[in-house]
Amino acid sequence: MKAWQVTRLGEPADVLELADLAVPAPATGQVVVRVLASAANFPDVLMCRGQYQVRPDLPFTPGVELCGEIVEIGDGVDGLSVGDRVLGGAALPHGGFGEFAVMAAAEAFGAPESLDDAQASSLFIGYQTGWFGLHRRANLQPGETLLVHAAAGGVGSAAIQLGKAAGARVIGVVGGPAKAEIARALGADVVVDRHAQDFVEVVKAETEGRGADVIYDPVGGETYLRSTKCIAFEGRILLIGFAGGTITETALNHALIKNYSIVGLHWGLYNKFAPELVSRCHAELTALADSGAIAPLVSEQLALGDIPDGLQRLADGNTVGRVVYQAD
């Protein structure tokens, strides 16, 4: 089979090499799938750089999220069959940026028939992160105002749709007109182009000075610091990641004075400590997809040979919507 491998650390365009490899065999509790589609995610970029909390041994094939057809099942796997179309996380080092991949059976879920392969490959990480963040960690309520940063990105785009499905009023912050159009298409009630507007002032104006009840922040750095200027009384700032590259140090007395919560989310820990909640989340996401309330917005489909360029553009912030490797 052909697959992209990271043989040294650096920028995706520099370190990904196309290799001819044997089709992997499943270990106990694993399945091998023929990759139908694999969505590009920022963790793929960080793993290429050696900056992610998960650091596979070299060489490895990235592609942490995929949709595939099961072709072989390992020992100790129940409830799955050869031929099943599944989505979920890859078991590295055999990620989704190749013709075949390995998945832990516990993280392989039935792909909704309402979604095509590219959409299904984008339903796992971003939407599970959004569901756990908005519902379990922030307890988002109907009628509340949700501010979403990086609203045209992978996790941000999911948060817009999940926020709307929960009955919230959603303000999306993006960088540039093209990304603004994506946020509007996803259903954001108000869209802020951060290159042309101050999101703090927009939020205050849209909420009559009260601020956002929940702020969904996958960026960090200065974006987080500015967010503290427009968080509502008893608001919740959700820390999703640090795509901006800076891990902020903050004065905690500000949270005390303004009576807001700073809430962290490491979604991957639920797979370890509460896998039953991950299954429940997938069931709810499937129902939302089948009802038409959510659908990953795939803006670009890549051939196998285009993966390094597409992942590098994601790394550089030059993509909109979801960028997905689509198998032939």
UniProtKB/TrEMBL annotation:
<dbReference type="InterPro" id="IPR036291">
    <property type="entry name" value="NAD(P)-bd_dom_sf"/>
</dbReference>
<dbReference type="InterPro" id="IPR020843">
    <property type="entry name" value="ER"/>
</dbReference>
<dbReference type="Pfam" id="PF00107">
    <property type="entry name" value="ADH_zinc_N"/>
</dbReference>
<protein>
    <submittedName>
        <fullName>Alcohol dehydrogenase zinc-binding domain protein</fullName>
    </submittedName>
</protein>
<dbReference type="InterPro" id="IPR011032">
    <property type="entry name" value="GroES-like_sf"/>
</dbReference>
<dbReference type="InterPro" id="IPR013149">
    <property type="entry name" value="ADH-like_C"/>
</dbReference>
<dbReference type="GO" id="GO:0016491">
    <property type="term" value="F:oxidoreductase activity"/>
</dbReference>
<dbReference type="InterPro" id="IPR051397">
    <property type="entry name" value="Zn-ADH-like_protein"/>
</dbReference>
<dbReference type="InterPro" id="IPR002364">
    <property type="entry name" value="Quin_OxRdtase/zeta-crystal_CS"/>
</dbReference>
<dbReference type="InterPro" id="IPR013154">
    <property type="entry name" value="ADH-like_N"/>
</dbReference>
<dbReference type="Pfam" id="PF08240">
    <property type="entry name" value="ADH_N"/>
</dbReference>
<feature type="domain" description="Enoyl reductase (ER)">
    <location>
        <begin position="11"/>
        <end position="325"/>
    </location>
</feature>
<dbReference type="GO" id="GO:0008270">
    <property type="term" value="F:zinc ion binding"/>
</dbReference>
